[in-house]
Amino acid sequence: MQHLDLQVIRRALAWSVAGQRIWLCTVLATYGSAPRAPGSLLAVNAAGQWIGSLSGGCVEEDFLERVAEGAFFAAVNVVRYGAGDDPRSRVSLPCGGILDVLVEKFEPDCEVQAHLREVESALLGQRRLIRQVDLASGARSLVADCEQGVRIERDSERVRIRVGAAQRLLLAGYSSVAQACAEFAVGLGFEVILCDPRDEVLEGVVLNGVEIRRQLPSVFIADGGCHRDTAVVALTHDPRIDDLAMMEAVRTDAFYIGVMGSLQTSQKRFERLRRIGGLGEPELARIHAPIGLNLGSRTPSEIALAVLADIVRIRSGIARDQL
């Protein structure tokens, strides 16, 4: 699956290399009901060609008309859609929401192309970056992103946008809980990959929007299947799958690593990982076990809700004591 943001940046880069001016639009904030999340991208060239999405239709149409009329000629603009008080916005969102959009004009030069290539590398999972945009001058810079947090940060002077690969959920082994997790995660916009070598377990399994790999999760992880935007969860109760996945996952940059089991089962697993896997306390400290938030979950769907809620918590940089 190719993450839509990556498609947008690659097309924008191709247009720039071809000598075309482009406008890169980023959803900064949504209020009320809005179709697209903060960070969503759209790119437009001077010929009116576009890729990406801000709202699912109405905002894009208005924006394209404005570009054709010669609007947005400044290096940077912030436009509010849906509130009715921004003269550059002529639409109200049918869902009643409000959308703030950052509009950047990019000239077709080497500096812009270098910037877009760096963003492309981050979207490919090679590293994570924060893209900083000065709201007065339009000046852009990139800095390394070394922690989790909200995707967009904004004050009166600048915008900071986290750039990384598509959020990935790697399910180590199939179970009824893994199925529920996959369904939740697809709805949340994760790229979901399920690894399980057991043909008898996968027989008849259908998971829409999920990539199924018939191999040991530990092998997939060792072959580079994780990046810094990956959450690895093991939900099978089979130590041959769960333990090996944990041993490999802690050697990666995955932002979340968790394994299902009671407190007693988790303590026994940690002892095995120390004794057999040779893991030390820093590696074990990265593993969430028991997995998920303590919601009193019992059913597969309730456990999956607790797991995904904890993953979203970590991804958003929120400590447990802040809940």
From TrEMBL:
Transmembrane segments: none annotated. InterPro entries: MoCofactor_Util/Proc, XdhC_CoxI, XdhC_Rossmann_dom. It comes from the Bacteria. Pfam families: XdhC_C, XdhC_CoxI. Residues 169-311 form the XdhC Rossmann domain. Residues 17-69 form the XdhC- CoxI domain. This is XdhC family protein. It comes from Pseudomonas carnis. The lineage of its organism: Bacteria, Pseudomonadati, Pseudomonadota, Gammaproteobacteria, Pseudomonadales.
